[in-house]
Amino acid sequence: MLKEQTVQKLFSMKLSGMAEALDEQNKQPELLSLSFEDRLAFLVEREWEERKARKLKRRLHVAKIKQTNACPEDIDYRTPRGLDKNTMTSLLECQWIADHRNVIVIGPTGSGKSYLSSAIAQKACRMDYSVRYERLSRLLQKIELSHADGSNLKLMEKLNKTALLILDDWGLTSWTEEESKYLFDILEDRDGSASTVIISQIPLENWYDLIPNQTIADAILDRLAHSSYKLILTGGSMRKKKVYSDLD
Where in the chain are the domains? Predict the structure, then answer.
């Protein structure tokens, strides 16, 4: 009876990992021969791992990563597309996030830009960094609406507090001058204090043409180009490769 009460109290204190582990220990007589310290260590380890798993689940939910199945361990380095394994391995260590640097991923449609960025995002979540994945066009729309309803400061604060912000579809269309100012505000607030991943089909040298105000263009590119690691992907579509492999 006392054992059942202890398990219930652990659940009440939101120590579900310890509660489940203790219940399992009580059902396995061979574990009862372990020392008190060893049994306690098993309980604490179980609680620790469960809390880590719950925190990771919450971070992934908030991040809204585009490709939820993207996994660092499953990255394809065999298909020729200009992806250097050593560079990618270094990026997956996430030290660049701690250093508040940026990553630019450029390549044609289907080259795996979003998958690689999603894999980086997942690894960052595993390492306790907050992540937010946004299509840039939709984010700019959100910012415009936030100015209209008075929630702009709250939205910008959320963006600023995010350790890793991923902006997908960069340069899919040219920006208006107002949108360029919004984009500058995002990058200016994050410069030197947080990290950003830019995903684009447009070569870096053509980014100036996307921004109507050259002063803003200089400011934006200055904050990105000189503090960013660059992944320049080439080759055919990885999507076609997957379709063909599925047919084999």
Answer: 2-62, 65-247
